[in-house]
Structures are given as C-alpha cells and as structure tokens.
Amino acid sequence: MKAEHLKGLFNRYKILALVIAIALIWALFTHLTDGDFLTARNLSNLLRQMAITGMLASGMVFVIISGEIDLSVGSLLGLLGGISAILDVQFHLPLWLNIPIVLIAGALVGAFNGYWVSYLRVPSFIVTLAGLLAFRGILLGITGGVTIAPVSNGLIAVAQSYLPDVAGYALGVLVFGVLAFSTLRSRNKRAEHGLAVPALGLDLARLAVAAVVIFGFFALLDAYRGVPTPVLIVLVLLGAFTVMARRTVFGRRIYAVGGNLEATRLSGVNVQMVKLMVFALMGAMAALAGIATTARLAAGSPSAGSLQELDAIASCIIGGTSMRGGAGTVFGALIGALIMATLDNGMSMLGVDTYWQMIVKGFILLMAVWLDVATSTKR
C-alpha cells in the first residue's frame, strides 16, 4: 500500500520532480564551471539550442501518446532544412513563400508515413526506420553531399534574431495573463459542476510563484539580447498544442487512441485518420525544426538532424510521456528537451568527451523508461 501511495505521489508531481531535477543539474554545472553556466549569455544559447529539439518533441509527444513511434524525424529535419536552403539559395524564394512550402511538404511526408502505419498496417517502427534511411539518402542526393550556403539574412533571422526588450516583457505579461485566466476559468467550471474547488489562497500562491518564474525568465533573457525567436516559436507551440490536447475533440481522441485503441474504434472514432493526422503534425514539426536548423547554421547541411530523433524521443520519455501510449504532455516534453540540452551544454563547457556525453544521455533515457514502468499503475 505504501509503494502504491509513492507511485501515486510521483505520478501526480512528476513535472515538479523534473523542475527540481533541472534546478539541481543547473546548480551542479554552475559550481563546476565557476558560475559561467548560469550567465545570461549561456542560458540564452542553451534555450536556443533546446528550441529545435523542443519543436521535434512537441510533435513526437502526440505520436507516442497515440501508441506509435517516429524514427525518421532526424533525417526528415535534415531533408526539409536542405530543401529550405535550396529554395533560398538557388531559387531565391522569399521567406513568406519558402516557409509555407516546406511546412506543407513536411506535413505531406508525415501523412505518407501515417498512411502506411494506419491504413496499410505496417508497424511504425519499420515505416519510420525506412524513412530514416530514405530521407537521408534523398538529402545527400539533392545536395550532392555538400553544404548549401550562404542563405539569406531573412532566413537566418528565424533562428538568430531576438525580440526587443519591451516585446519580451509584454510577452511575459501575456503568458501570465493566460495562466491567470485559465486558473480562474478552471475554478469557475469546477464550482459549476459541483466539484471540489482548491483553496483560493493555494491558487494565488501558485500564481505568485508562476509570476516570479515567468518574469525572472524574461528578465534573464533581456539581460543578454532579449527573447530568441526560436524560443518564442516554442512558447507559441506550447500554448497551441496544450489547448489542442485539452480543449479539442482531436486532442482527446489522440489520448483515447493511445489509451485503448479497440474501445476507441468501437465508439465510432476513425482511429486510422487520427493516427494519420498525428504523423502529418509530426512532419510539420520536423519541417519547422529543419528551417530553424538551417537558419541557425546559416546553411543547409547534409548531416543536419543526425540522431536528432533520439533526442526528441528521449525528451518525451524524460518528460513523462508513457511509451505504452495514452499519457503525456507537451509541457513535460519541453522540460525533457531542456534537460537534454542542459546536459549537452554543461558537459560541453566542461570539455567532456562526446562519447561520454552519449553514454550519460543514454543512461538517463534508460532510467526514465524504467521509472515510467516502475511507477505505472497499469498492469
């Protein structure tokens, strides 16, 4: 009974545990680097580094929730980033046309993967493993194995520009306002349905802590150069996908498909279309991450996105997404992406060899999966 109680506590406060883990990791790296890790410049770079993995993880979390997996996203990121560079360098397409074309292409490729999985019933592991190889081959073919450069300043700005200070603080106010409105709305809804409403003081305390964290976050970024554009994109994705998951029929169906596929099918839901749409969404996120990668490198690289699918999957699992499907959040996946980026950044600052970095990240992924299994209430 005591073990079951501990499992329940962990599942309820999993995100809090992850936040505490990040704080401890940051404290360790700050100590080992004599304070260099916790500078505004390094944290800004860390968040820009995390943003690309976060874009992939934002899509991957829904794939895993639906009970599937996508191993092709790293290669697809490289392919679509390469296409974006080619459209920019060789065809001189303006940014307002380049980005939609690449996003639509990503969604179509994702839907192609989803069609094989949902309608032709080929396991997603095999379909996306084939994509991992094929997309990388296509990338090498269209680029000739050479870097496509230099890309235009407009494309570079997607990953290397910053919001002005005033805009950053305005965004902070907006984020806090949305959080406060959501809290108030939740209280009213619970009261209308006769459910227990948390003490007002408790909700106010949570909002006070959130206000300190939010405005501290934006103040720290403004201390360097402002909020990086990729971080803004990730924040928008967080808000949009959280609303989709919690407030839309499509979002609820994704969880239902992953939780009990047969029961969902018998209830009249088109589970095949749901899975196809999830893979299409993943493809669009791979396209967005590919554009951001090309902008960050200021070039289309034939090696871009290598092993990036593993970081995306690891971010979701570390962030509490269950490999069995039916459970997970975008916020948790982004926290997981932040942990992965923190490990990369901190160990690089300490001069840790690449092979040790890979060993550490692999061990942490293994422990995250074990913790998910050990604390699961399912049998």
From TrEMBL:
Position of the signal peptide: none
CDD domains: TM_PBP1_transp_AraH_like
Bilayer topology annotation: Multi-pass membrane protein
Localization, UniProt: Cell membrane
Cell inner membrane in keyword set: yes
Keyword annotations: Cell inner membrane, Cell membrane, Membrane, Sugar transport, Transmembrane, Transmembrane helix, Transport
InterPro entries recorded: ABC_transp_permease
Membrane-spanning residues: 12-29, 49-66, 73-93, 99-118, 125-146, 166-184, 196-221, 227-245, 276-299, 355-373
Role, per record: Part of the binding-protein-dependent transport system for D-xylose. Probably responsible for the translocation of the substrate across the membrane.
Name of this chain's protein: Xylose transport system permease protein XylH
Species the sequence originates in: Rhizosaccharibacter radicis
